[in-house]
Amino acid sequence: LKQHPVIHLGIDPEWAPFEYRDTKGSYSGMASDYVRLLSERLGVELRTREGLNWAEVIEHAKQRRLDLLPAVMKSPQREEYLNFTSPYLDFPMVIITRADATFVASLDDLVGKQVAVVCSYVTQDLLEANHPDLDLVLTDNIDQGLQAVSLGEVSAYVGNLAAISHA
Known about the structure:
Blueprint: E1 6-9, E2 14-15, E3 19-21, E4 27-28, H1 30-42, E5 45-48, H2 54-62, E6 93-96, E7 114-118, H3 122-130, E8 135-139, H4 142-150, E9 156-160, H5 161-166
Parallel strand pairs: 1-5, 7-8, 7-9
Antiparallel strand pairs: 2-3, 3-4, 6-9
């Protein structure tokens, strides 16, 4: 830590309530509270990289241009270029459909239908690896995915319950 007093963080600027940029551009959310505590206790500066969207953060992580991702979910694909601690937050993934849609009991019910997920989120990794028969539609953020469901452009959106509830 003495040789590395500034640790560069890769954050998702749009993943409230976990982490996001508030209206003033400051790093906010649950993960930011943990980051502040770590910074104080370790006596190092934990500095976020400005101007990156999540897909760019993932690319920077692959290129080892970032030191730490405080709110990243584990997947076999990501284990190829990241080391993971035990999770400090845990929320379920859910399937969102329109109220007038046929009941969806599992992902198997979405085969042959378009399913929105945020590009470069772990949901994309997991669904591509474990459910290759789904027709994924990649969105830039959660709001776009939920709007696509609302407008009937896709059959469902799959994502994190807390982030969806916040949106």
